[in-house]
Design goal:
Strand order of the largest sheet: 1-2-3
Low-confidence stretches: none
Structural class: alpha+beta
Mean pLDDT: 93
Largest sheet: 3 strands, antiparallel
Order of helices and strands: HHEEE
Oligomer: single chain
Number of helices: 2
Organism: Microbacterium aoyamense
Distance between the termini: 71 Å
Protein name: Helicase
Radius of gyration: 21 Å
Number of domains: 1
Shape: rod-shaped
Number of strands: 3
Strand content: 25-35%
């Protein structure tokens, strides 16, 4: 009987570790997707600010963020440089990613 209790403990510990690592991996993937949405939104805003595409810069950024499943939190355009923050929720936890786009200094 002592061997079966040890086996149950090992299996339970392995299951807890697997669930924890899976959750951490999913959070990392979500963070990368959110960062990609921020990059796309910043590029769209910078393109609109430069006149390369039509529309208001922050409206274009909001469109791209929504297409990526995120929401535009902040948008600031100074000259041709756009800085945006997009947000989303990973389960019960809010997450925010920021990006900046524009011509080189």
């Amino acid at each position: 009987m002592p061997g079966s209790m040890l086996s149950v403990g090992v299996v339970a510990a392995t299951a807890v570790l697997a669930v924890g690592l899976t959750t951490a991996g999913a959070a990392a993937v979500f963070g990368q997707r959110l960062a990609g949405a921020a990059d796309a939104a910043a590029l769209a805003a910078a393109d609109a600010a430069s006149g390369a595409v039509s529309g208001a810069p922050c409206e274009r950024a909001a469109e791209l963020a929504a297409a990526s499943g995120a929401s535009l939190e902040t948008c600031e355009v100074i000259d041709l440089v756009a800085t945006v923050s997009v947000g989303g929720r990973f389960g019960a936890f809010p997450a925010v990613a920021s990006a900046r786009a524009g011509p080189p200094p």
